[in-house]
Write a structure and sequence with these properties.
By secondary structure, the chain is of the alpha+beta class. It has one domain: Ribosomal Protein L22, Chain A. Helix content is about 25%, strand content about 25%. The chain contains 4 helices and 8 strands. The strands form 3 sheets. Strands 1-8-5 form a 3-stranded antiparallel sheet. Strands 2-4-3 form a 3-stranded antiparallel sheet. The protein has a two-stranded antiparallel sheet with strand order 6-7. α2 runs antiparallel to α3.
Amino acid sequence: MTNINHPYKMDDKKVAHSGATNLRVSTKNSVEISRFIKGLGIDNAIDYLNTVVTIKKAIPFKRFNKDQAHRKGGMGPGRYPVNAAIEFLKLLKNAKNNAEVKGLDGGRLVVDNAQANIGSSRFHRGARSFGRRRAKSTNISITVKETKLKKIVVKKPSVKVAKPKVAPKATKVETEKVDVKEDIKKDI
């Protein structure tokens, strides 16, 4: 049975899907990761999330960025959501395997749609049995699509040697010396 709200029919031959429900990760972190990986090549997304897990690169936070510190690389506010990144890595690898089973080329896959939603509410007791708390729960869905990847050619900036600035040479302008007294006498 296909989901009516799903953007693609499940029999579409250029698309593969992967998803999980009720994962024990933060929904806010999952929303930021899904926004970031949308449109990336699947291999690039997997490599980047591996560096997030090792806390070398951060995920830029655009929506849930209150009181967030700026991170290296000029990205602005960001975090290292390790637990959510691990779950996304599992789903991306699963989506890539699903695509290869369908006969799609794994090197030309792009993350077409990634979304994270709040999962079902589960309550549990706190550590000291003070009341009850809502447990984190997130539903994640990833859709990959086979496309023609554009080769991005990165041009290295040409090194320009700065020439020392020299003041322009002053040109001599010849002026006639006119005696004002003689001109006045001629006019009278």
